[in-house]
């Protein structure tokens, strides 16, 4: 597409107008100026360059440091691991990022702690329907 703009520039030097050039190659003037603008934006030093990674994404070295720390310290969960790595100046990252990295590499530890929620009632005086058996409660007294 930028050949069109370069050729038009050469013909302009010969005294041929943009309108005449566009008619000769079979495009509208608005199409020509759209192409010229796109070409100019690509050549501009201020043109946005495609960024392959986000500005705050971890580098490969940082990911490897997280994995190495996880292998060396298997007793920690991802949250404690993230904060310890910050304290030890290894990697500055969030617990959720550490979790994603560890999960991707299969290094997530199973939670060994008991559930904090979900109380299970073991009173034999309540049957499976959730109804209370008063006779059993009286016998217990």
| SSE string | HHHHHHH
Task: Count the E strands.
Answer: 0
Gyration radius from CA atoms, angstroms: 35 Å
Q: What is the averaged pLDDT score?
A: 79
Total of helices: 7
Beta-strand content estimate: under 5%
Unreliable parts: none
Tell me the overall shape: elongated
What distance separates the N and C termini? 94 Å
How can the largest sheet be summarized? none
Binned, the helix content reads 40-55%
Derived from helix and strand composition plus strand pairing, the structural class reads: mainly alpha
What does this structure look like?
- The protein has seven helices and no strands.
- With 141 residues, the chain is an all-alpha fold.
- Among the domains are: 42 residues, no CATH class; 45 residues.
- The termini are far apart.
- The relative contact order is 0.07.
List the helices and strands and how they pair.
Layout: H1 2-13, H2 18-25, H3 29-43, H4 60-72, H5 78-87, H6 95-104, H7 134-140
Helix pairs in contact: 5-6
